[in-house]
Amino acid sequence: MTRTLITLCTYNERENIAELIPELHAIVPEATILIIDDNSPDRTGQLAADLSFADPRVQVLHRASKQGLGTAALAGFRYAIDNGFEFVVNLDADFSHNPKYIPELVRRMPQCDVAIGSRYVSGGGVAGWTLGRKLMSLSINAWARLCLGLSNQDNSGSFRCYRVSKLAEIDWSLTIARGYAFQEEVLYRCQRVKCRMVEVPIIFEDRRFGTTKINLGECLTAVWVIFALGIQRLFRCRVKHADEGDSMPHNTAKRVSETPWFTIPIALNAAALGLILISQTCFRRTFDATEIELPFQTQIALGVMPHVTLSAILLSTFVMQRWANVRLMRLWGSVAVSACGLVVGQHMIGVWLAFLPHGPVDLSF
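and the corresponding structure tokens:
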């Protein structure tokens, strides 16, 4: 019999947990249930402790404060790895994921490493959603497929079953997402360690009690995190544990790029060049129409300087990858990604300006 762990990440889910735990016991009586609670004000943690005292199949991980859904799910992964489970099933604790699908997810595991409860394959769907929420979900999934190269239709849902031995191959200390973007990041990292994935159709239902924790800030953060992971994908940054033989002295990081470093500036500069040419063409069209002559300094700023800036950023990032402390490299990576975005954004503004009505413009420095 397989050893299966079910993880429930909770924050103010007392009413849902009271009904969900008995239902899980009825559907998968052999599974161990781990409740990860972030010191919920509604005393979800206390109820979880009481349930654990009454039934050893229920375990509880109490955390001191609200630390994000991603870190809670990650704590569940580590518990599964440390305690030798074969599979770990994660689902929302509010009944939006019906427990009746768990046996089918586990049944698919001999043919895959990750079984995804999917809303967007044939037979799947959502119930009770507004059009705005549907569009938001579809957009974030399309964004994840574009940036991360994922082929799954549903990358943002958390109802999944994982093979624990594959999760153990991943160095989770490199995780950057803390909130809902963790779901896309998990699939990205699983893909990098060559996990086989299948999608199982589910109907996503509205929560029974309480209010959703998803808000606009979480959505914007997810967009940014997925973009940052896309940059990591381009750099082929390390996702597995570093081999002892590759580790450097004085706690320095091994080189995390798996591709020749010089291909990175070439590839990104080529992409930036395309945007620069488009924006410069639009600028010239605008200036010709308004009889504005570009000062020499402005021509340099629009042409040469972005390439110099981008190349300097990428070269210094390469240096940081090879010799910097891991924490310092993460900080620099955030700065580098932001700077690259600003450089590209400068030229996208040029495209935008070309389609606006123009009056007298002073572009001198």
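(Above: one complete record from the training split.) Residues 124 and 202 are 5 Å apart (CA to CA).
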